[in-house]
Amino acid sequence: MAGAAAALDYDAELMLRVKEGDGASFALLLEKHRSPVVHFLYRMIQNQAVAEELAQDVFLRVYRSRATYEPTAKFTTWLFRIATHLALNSIRDGRHERQQDRLDDDSSELPVRQVSDGSPSVEQRMVYQAKLEEVRKAIAMLPEKQRAAVLMHKYEEMEYSQIAKVLSCSESAVKSLLFRAYETLRARLAHMA
Amino acid sequence: MKCPSQNQENAELLQAHVSRKLDADRAAVLEQHLATCAACREYAAAQFAMWEALDAWEAPSVSADFNRRLYSRIEQRVSWSDLLIRPLRPLFAARWMPVAAAACVLVAAGLWIEHPDRMPAVNAPQSAELEALPPDQAANALQEMQTMQEFSQVIHADSSEPQM
Prior knowledge:
The complex is a heterodimer of chains A (about 190) and B (about 160).
Chain A: H1 2-8, H2 10-19, H3 23-45, H4 48-64, H5 75-93, H6 122-140, H7 144-155, H8 160-167, H9 171-189
Helix pairs in contact in A: 2-3, 3-4, 3-5, 4-5, 5-8, 6-9, 7-9, 8-9
Chain B: H1 8-18, H2 24-36, H3 38-55, H4 66-76, H5 80-85, H6 89-93, H7 96-114, H8 124-131, H9 135-160
Helix pairs in contact in B: 2-3
């Protein structure tokens, strides 16, 4: 069953071509998955510079592992497994905290969401930034595994089964992680309703 | 349906409904329950609010030089053997190459069978040189070999004598 799923995975086919020495296929994989990986790492670490550095490590590992690659799972499962592993290591090392642009200092790099007339007022922008800050802090306060599960579920729209494979746990454990995480977030963000 | 506030499984269903990941049939059953249960309605409203708050968090776009930096790191790690093989990779990758190589071998074999005299003989020059060797030169070579043997015998005889 897993083999059949992997056979249908176009990304895994591309990776097999990379294994044969096709650089163009690696470029396609990079183009497709660069933003999701960087965004996931950014939300995990909450530091853009470190997130990009880690994302580079992810793709470097993918490239270096090409010779031994076997499509035993979905390509994205493997990719996010590497990304999660690196993110958790980075958090445990406190690597992201040593960087200059800290969580509190890098709000200027955030995209400004446009309101309907296309030009947000100063007040609207301030409200948006304050709301965003609360969301960021609420997610940053989640335990690492819950945080990773929420980010994969909410922003990468991954299925429970895939998250379970990334986090090396059972599907029911993922449901439980997500339930607890969303409960915590609801309590922390309830006043924003 | 048992109230999600009293049943873990249904509480997970309610969360799935909020994240819009519930199939239509189960969503309809849940909606029926929400219509009659104020506590669950309140809970669902808070969950929807939380979900929308999370939607507001957009990640910044990736740096324009991300690929350049990555490829630069990849190049740094490329081994010398990779660099040597790289120019030949397109040849190996081309599917017609093995067929063309086999065809070349067949044509060469065919030519050799048809016209063996036209094919270059690998050992020909060497044997030609031996055949062309003048008789006196061969005699000289034999003479030199004999001299060397005698010289070797003298040397060994000297070294076997006890040193004074």
